[in-house]
Amino acid sequence: MSVRTLDEWLAFVERQHPQAIALGLERVAEVRARLGLAFDCPVFVVAGTNGKGSTCAMLEAILRAGGYRTGLYTSPHLLRYNERVRIAGVEASDEALAEAFAAVEAARGGVALTYFEFGTLAAAWLFARARLDAVVLEVGLGGRLDAVNAFDADCALLTSVGLDHTEYLGPTREAIGREKAGIFRAGRPAVVGDPQPPASVLEVAAACGARLLRYGHDFGARAERTQWLYWSRNGRRAVLAYPSLRGAVQLRNAACAIAALETLRERLPLGLEAVRAGLADARPAGRFQVLPGRPRIVLDVAHNPQAAEVLADNLAAAAGVGRTIAVLGMLRDKDIAGVARALAPRIDRWHLASLGGPRGAPAATLVGALAAAGVPTQAIASHANVAAALAAARAEAGGDDTIVACGSFLTVAAAMAELDAGRARGNG
Fold first, then answer.
1. For 406, phi and psi rounded to 5 degrees?
2. Rounded to an integer, what distance in angstroms lies between the CA atom of residue 387 and that of residue 378?
3. Is the bond preceding residue 189 a cis peptide, omega within 30 degrees?
4. Fewest CB within 10 angstroms: 95, 302, 342, 394, which?
């Protein structure tokens, strides 16, 4: 076989299974066994409808601030596939990822792996060779049947349970909670950040014998004027600066990260300074990411009603004297109407973008959802793509206005790419 570049590998991997999403552990478990993949360090597995990316970033940052060598696997990426695999805080190189894909390909035989399964095994192959002190794995979809769940969690985290991916996980929070709680393991800690988890989450924990730790019961956070306090049955950590990630929900995510780290403190001891430094340093892209300059531009990957409500709250808390202009693009299988209802009270002007690909929603679909949410037609403009929508928003925005690009990872990625291209042209 000739040597493939990373781009060639990614194109090859996309063709190896007839479905983009095919849940189940049999395929990935078989190839994992052939590769002999195992970790000799603690493993954190993080699931949740929202908040899991932020929580993973906090776990990585706190551990690194404490001097530990970490592996972090997340998805999806924004601009480069390399973003998904980080070792010691550095994205894996094209060459390393290509070597990992080659190793998986050599071991899989006739097993048809999905794109995500292939990538998960490739990341694990790199981590197993990197002499790590801790591994953080973000679940892709659900939990019980997600490829990441082929690896046992020393500590499982469930950040939140909302309605998303209902076609795969079920139509109710109870059904979705049961799927997500599938990452829990017998005798091991299961940290639940949802303040009101579905009963199914508690039932799964009891049935499998996990050591359940619930936000508001076993640990929690208390906001104060200029700082916040974390509490648990192990004591309090006071005088904590607010996380670099904005929004009240991030205190809950930070508390989840600290609670998870406390459960493994005998293997990964951490001082208060590491917690403080890590929370200040954790900055995953696209989570209420505020760019410098005027007008202010905010990037947020919120793509379901629960996340859109958090985005709306953040916009309200950060409101200035100007207007808020949305650049919105979404996938057709998301709850577009729910997102529209959540954001409508906070947006003055809408620039709607069609997203390409089989899952992309045309701008006309978004127009209908906004109309149903009571947005007047004169406040809406439609565009062929994100670049055009962003250009129109920037052209009409005043210096005191805020532009928020949201609705999908694809929307944020396209906005980031367009802004980067503008800076390269010297007119960013």
1. -155, 180
2. 21
3. no
4. 95
Task: Report the C-alpha gap between 160 and 167 in whole angstroms.
Answer: 18
- Six-digit token string for 69: 């060598």
Residue 202 buriedness (CB in 10 A; 0-12 / 13-18 / 19+): middle
Structure tokens given for 252: 């809950």
Strands 85-87 and 211-214 come out as: unpaired
> For the chain, first and last CA: distance in Å?
43
Which residues, in sequence order, are CB contacts of 90 under 8 Å at separation 6+?
Answer: none
Q: Is 87 helix (H, G, I), strand (E, B) or coil?
A: strand
Write down how long the chain is: 428
Q: Structural domain boundaries of the chain?
A: 6-281, 289-425
Buried b (16+ CB within 10 A) or exposed e, 183-194: bbbeebbbbbbb
- Residue identified by tokens 């951490």 is 270
The one-digit pLDDT tens for each residue of the chain (428 residues) are 467 999 999 999 998 887 777 788 999 999 999 999 999 999 999 999 999 999 999 999 999 999 999 999 999 999 999 999 999 999 999 999 999 999 999 999 989 999 999 999 999 999 999 999 999 999 999 999 999 999 999 999 999 999 888 888 999 999 999 999 999 999 999 999 999 999 999 999 999 999 999 999 999 999 988 899 999 998 888 888 888 887 778 999 999 999 999 999 999 999 999 999 999 999 888 999 999 899 999 999 999 999 999 999 999 988 778 999 999 999 999 999 999 999 999 999 999 999 998 899 999 999 999 999 999 999 999 999 999 999 999 999 999 999 999 999 999 999 999 998 877 677 65
Angle between helix 52-65 and helix 272-281 axes, rounded to 10 deg: 130
Q: Strand order of the sheet with strand 155-158?
A: 90-91, 85-87, 70-73, 134-138, 43-47, 155-158, 189-192, 211-214
Q: In CATH, what class is 289-425?
A: alpha beta
Tell me how crowded residue 331 is: count the other CB atoms within 10 A of its CB.
Answer: 18
